[in-house]
Amino acid sequence: MNKKKLPYVKLILDILMGTTFALLFNKMVLGGLTFHEIAGTAIGFAVLAHVLLNVNYVKKITLRLFDKSLPGKTRLGYALNVLLLLSMIFILFSGFVISRVLFPNFQFGNERWFKVSHMAVSYFTLVLIGIHIGLHWSWVINVVKKGLHFNMSKVRSKVIWTSAAIVVLLFGGYQIYTTQFLSKLQMVEGMFSSSSIQAGHEEGSRPGFGQKPSKPQGMEPRGEKFQGGDFHGEGARGGHTSASAANVLLENFGVMAVFAGATYYLDKWLLLRRKRGTRVSIAS
């Protein structure tokens, strides 16, 4: 592939992945559950393509991982990428376990625990994606500027980007507050609680592959919806709620934007602090 086109291919792939992932937080959009499962599976292939497009970078950093000269930001980015990859793999696998359309006969462990974990890890991954964007935001801006041949004075450019960042961060903060997103993140902790694991064994124990599952008392049939939470467009009582794709995107892009913005400006502040420390050290 032409090296000049590679950054644009990466950016387009990342945008498609982010957009698709955001849409998956409500399974009532774009055709319902069928789209949700097909798009979710497609993200798995997109993640693989993303890794292959960055394979040289991965090899380079992996070989230098224990090199003391490797910047801390690079180490953090590497660890974040590994965590993102593992999260995506878990989301994909748990999606297979609770599948209703593509893999209705896929059986592994207790389904109820995988449903809760599927939601919890998805919320956590949304945060990771936001941090990932924040760490690479300078690269995104440079690629966009080159692609659009965007020329503007530094002062005017700074005013526009800063104003846009303030608006986006305020909107994202509003989305986090109204959707109670921070409380949803607590589901990750609940994945490992003894009560959650025990409830899963009592209510949703499933046999191994090829065996006909039994239905313990209180266990919902595989064809019914999981009741609990508003994830995927299901109400607190298990009812359906319709949602437009635009609303779902705005809500989840807003959440990602807050973590991306916080990461970006924290990184800039730390860089500025290091530069000032270096100047003081040289002067003394």
Automatic annotation (TrEMBL):
UniProt keyword list: Membrane, Transmembrane, Transmembrane helix
Pfam families, per the entry: DUF4405
Segments of skewed composition (Basic and acidic residues): 221-237
Residue stretches spanning the membrane: 7-26, 38-57, 78-99, 119-139, 159-177, 248-266
Domain called Flavinylation-associated cytochrome: residue spans: 80-137
Region (Disordered): 198-239
This protein's name: DUF4405 domain-containing protein
